[in-house]
């Protein structure tokens, strides 16, 4: 299945150039094009693209604000800023942008970014040694409140917790539980020796890590034992994990 791409750019010529470059890569498909930020959010919800090329300055609006909305909807979306505004680069990478292209960019530069995305699945990563992180906390269950029910989740069985689609989802090896609680609220109830806030949208169980692979320029992806879902990891947290396991 092709990797879906959305273009958010108010210059028709730039959109045409990007589309032609992308269409030469059979792994990718341009699923949507937008020239306004409000339309970008609508199209993103509809098409759910894996990659977004996003201009920062669109008709007087700030594309960084749009990127925040998109990453809240899907933390794993690869945002590639394509803009003439190099001064926004630090702010962009605070959002874990996958890449930052400064106009006028070359075809070769875009091709390198697309090749890197296509190669991610086969990239070799850092394998974490098997190590059980013992918990000093007495609490062994987490109460998850639903609209009309309560679930008691065994904390050692939690693989990861993810913020997605304006909700928080707790994944165990066999089940998943949606809650309105924030990641910050749940983080307070978990043993920091066993669970790590790996990214603004994820909490991970260190005992369940199977593999860590490069994802963006300063971001990694974590694969788990027992779940097909994965999580994002910042470069800072990557170094922290290495220190814990060495």
What's the gist of this structure?
With 246 residues, the protein is α/β, with parallel strands linked by helices. The protein has helices at residues 12-23, 37-47, 63-73, 89-94, 107-119, 183-188, 235-245; strands at 3-8, 28-34, 51-54, 57-58, 61-62, 78-83, 99-102, 141-145, 150-154, 158-164, 167-172, 176-179, 195-199, 202-205, 209-214, 219-224, 230-234.
Protein model, in words:
By secondary structure, this protein is of the alpha/beta class. Helix content is 28%, strand content 34%. The protein contains 7 helices and 17 strands. The strands form 5 sheets. A 5-stranded parallel beta sheet has the order 2-1-3-6-7, with helices on both faces. A 5-stranded antiparallel beta sheet has the order 12-11-10-14-13, with no helix packed on it. A hairpin with a 2-residue loop joins β13 and β14. α2 (37-47) packs parallel to α3 (63-73). It is globular, with a radius of gyration of 19 Å. Mean pLDDT is 84; it is low at 121-138.
Low-confidence stretches: 121-138
What is the string of helix and strand elements? EHEHEEEHEHEHEEEEEHEEEEEH
Radius of gyration: 19 Å
Number of helices: 7
What share of the residues does DSSP label as strand, in percent?
A: 25-35%
Number of strands: 17
